[in-house]
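Internal tracking record. Fields below are filled automatically when a chain is submitted to the structure queue. Please do not edit lines marked as system-generated. If the sequence contains nonstandard residues, flag them in the REMARKS field before resubmitting.
Queue: standard
Priority: normal
Entity type: single polypeptide chain
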Amino acid sequence: MARRFRKQRKMNVQQALEFLQNMHAVDSDGGSDIEFEMEEDSDASDSELEPEPECDTVPPAETPQAPLCKRARTEPTEQTQRTERARHGTVWEEQSVGAARSAGRLPAHMVLTETAGPTHHAKARIASRLDCFLSLVDTEMLTQIRDCSVAEACRTDAKLDLTVDELMAFIALCYVRGLYGGKSMDMESYWSEIFGLPFFKETMPRNRYRQIMKCLRFDNKDTRAERLLADKFALISDTWNSFVKNSIACYKPGQNITVGEQLFLTKSRCPFTTASKPDKFGIKFWIAADVDTKYMLNALPYLGKDPTRPAGERASETVVMRLIEPFTGKGRNVTMDNFFTSLSLADKLIAKNTSILGTMNKIRQELPPSVKVDTPTELFSTTVMTSGKASLTIYRCKPKKSICILSTMHPTVIIGTEKKKKPDTVTDYNNTKGSVDVLDQMARLYSVKGGTRRWPVAVFYNMLDLAAINAHVLYKTCLDERENRRDFIMGLACELRQNHMKTKAAATAAETAVRVTATLDVPLAPGKTTQC
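SYSTEM-GENERATED OUTPUT FOLLOWS
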């Protein structure tokens, strides 16, 4: 302990009493501690405490003592935080980096209240690869495709006695073609005597495959004109919507979901083809994917201007709210790029117990003015500003470039210890932003896509690619199997054609039996005997 120093003054009893009487009331507990020390006076006695009789002699005046003032305590004063008002009217307040905005329990939009993985509906019906596929592309969808294809064949005076098992065998051939990178190969080569694959020859003849492909349809042509007035996607909307609905019903995502876009390359003529990079032409899909497993959770085709969009709402906000609607209210986070991110979208998701993390375009009106001016700052420096429950991180990643990240899942922004001093908002965004891009790369690796002039067939190819990825995820999580995707697709193709091969073998055996019976029933020519 620090040594305590005290002032010492020598007083007699009379001086001490006068000093105490002259003290002010406010000084009774303040000032420095004073220790009284009595003088060694042999004549001092208790009689000195009694008042002396009045006399003409005036005692010498005592030297006036300065009043002892209480020492003021210096309280730490809070630094005034810089505030800015955006053009949109939003008020932003600068926050110290690493300082917690609140203490205690985490808010509801940051606590996951649902177990990730396959649903009970999926676990109860999945026991093989084929069950995983049929959970997504069910028999009702296959029956509808079969009926529409047969109706198209009858309309063109072609006989197509197509069954669901044969349609599944047709899909199996599409998957095998994708495994061997046949999207740019001529289909004739797969039935070649020299370079062909036995799998194709054993499954069905080449001309039969051509006939099914020619008549493949997904809707009723008699009611198509009426449905196209309200739905540009009417030629395959029923099949696509059923696939998306089954995908949602079979799997629950984890903590993080990524929203992005996929461009499926095709030159088929359709009213909503998009020209964009890296492909010049294609059909765009808005996709929500699980960060951990790359499972396709929800998907919407881009059809141009949406007449059902609420007035005053951005198109990007409408897309995100429709994609995330089945998964809100459970404490999940949604990561997106600057096309989707906005402060109004963050408020809407917060109301549904869902957080947001994404980069922001600097042209947004709700951003503070200092961000748009891009004032030069130190390299790898971080500035954090808050507005309500949202925090805006401005990180100087390059000498002449800074990025803005909006987040409602980071009540505290912490700077990393590496060389670039990245804040945790940037690190978390980098770890969760690429799920849709990875999903698109996986779909292209073993794509069943082939040359076609009909855009519904191109959408059907994309559906098969996404169904194979989702079925593989269900197979690994439901049955606890560790099998790479190529082997899974090979096994799935064999199971898809299994019933058709049994039917084909039975028909072949019946034809052989009839042929043998007919041969035995032929009468012998007269005059000839059989040779034993």
